[in-house]
Design brief:
Length: 225
């Protein structure tokens, strides 16, 4: 069985579990939309603050949702000896990592479509660079999913994994969120900066490649711990 087939098998398993449990639909999506709604009331739209802050608020909501998605993936593996079964399955740890990261990425991309619609409707912004926004979402989501899956495996064997995971993950994904926010500002507001959206997209792609490569190498030892 090839690496990509193993990854597809793991991703399909995780996504089927989420579809059947409807955790994302019933908990993650309402929470993310609630975050956007609270900021819409907290910031004064008449002064333009809300519109200028929209890209950052969007990625804050995505970050909280990513943490929930990774913690949900950990909870599924921790129950009923699933983690031990994965170890004994004979699957390549790199394929397991890619599959779990892909499942988280798919969930985040679906959520980002919902959140982007909410930002446009609630914050009165218009998309002026649709391809820039799509590229930003894909690259940033790949980085978030890869880092989340890797550090989720690192925290999986600890009793305090629910509280430790955010502490481990937030410093690592902070550069991704900053670059994604800057690139999204160009796509949503048309604002130009000294560093162009293309440069931010390139930085996002570098982080995504680094996190994926490191995950492919390190996931096996982490899975055995």
């Amino acid at each position: 069985m090839t690496l990509l087939r193993e990854a597809a098998l793991v991703a399909g398993k995780d996504l089927r579990i989420e579809l059947r449990s409807r955790i994302g639909l019933n908990q993650v999506v309402p929470l993310a939309l609630l975050i956007l709604l609270l900021f819409a009331f907290a910031l004064d739209p008449d002064r333009g603050v809300l519109k200028r802050a929209a890209p950052g608020l969007f990625w804050v909501a995505v970050l909280f949702s990513a943490l929930l998605a990774v913690q949900r993936s950990l909870a599924v593996e921790s129950a009923d000896g699933v983690r031990d079964a994965i170890r004994l399955s004979g699957l390549d740890p790199a394929g397991i990592f890619l599959g779990k990261a892909a499942a988280v990425a798919v969930q985040l991309l679906v959520l980002e479509v919902v959140l982007a619609t909410g930002v446009v409707l609630l914050y009165d912004v218009r998309v002026v660079g649709i391809w820039t926004l799509i590229g930003t979402a894909v690259a940033a989501t790949a980085g978030l999913a890869a880092a989340g899956s890797l550090y989720g495996a690192l925290a999986a064997g600890l009793r305090v994994r629910e509280t430790l995971l955010p502490l481990l993950l937030l410093p690592v994904v902070a550069p991704v969120l900053i670059a994604a926010t800057r690139a999204s500002e160009s796509a949503l507001t048309g604002t130009s900066f000294e560093v162009s959206a293309g440069d931010w997209l390139g930085l996002l792609a570098v982080f995504a490649v680094l996190y994926i490569a490191f995950g492919l190498l390190a996931y096996g030892p982490l899975l055995e711990d």
